[in-house]
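Section 5.1 Outputs to date
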Amino acid sequence: MNITGLDALVFGVDDLAACSRFLLDYGLTDAGDGRFEALDGTAVQIRARDDASLPPPLPTRTQLRQTVYRVADAATLDAIAAELGRDRPVRRLADGAVEAADDLGFALRFQRDTRQPVALGAEVVNLPGSTPARPLNHVAVDDAADLRPRTLSHVVYFVPDEARATAFYRDRLGFRETDRLLGAGPFLRPAGTPEHHTLFLIQTPPFLQGCEHFTFHMTGPGAVLQAGSRLQARGHASFWGPGRHRMGSNWFWYFKGP
């Protein structure tokens, strides 16, 4: 199935104003109606916890209410609807999108890929012994730099049955296991992306089920560090990072999700 990655994560929250302020400080752009977007249009969507339009919550305190995936074409939406419709309720929306739940109850939505191209260049660095990529006296840290996230990278779930969750994404949706963190769980990616992973599953007790964290891609390691410092300067002392897995190639802006 030609699933190309994450489009959005939808949360039901207690304090819309505080969450909106944080997402703006994080670098996302307010697109209206509780949607906060990266440069390519991928997003975090927030609603009030008791908003009737949200999918039902999981039986834990997690605020994640839906994970939205993008797909390449209408044929993929039809294939997903047919596959998941064999053993669970599937909802088809007017725009062709498909909604269902995975085997552990996480609400999913699949819709056409509408990302916008991001034309910004990559971060440049100078290294001893290499041809300079940045001109002399060109300071690497720019206080006025545009540090907005480029695109939604991946989400991590705490799950009470990692083997069952892995089987669902692998066997029903065509995800591939690219790596495995021993004692935790697998890194998974759908067929339509070259990313190292879009989903990471971590085995936990049932009461922890939910979103552990999600990340956005930045321009490079300098942008990660500077964005973290900027977030701290705006009063968000809980920033933790940067981090990097030993496997894969994703520089990421690390945020612990609710």
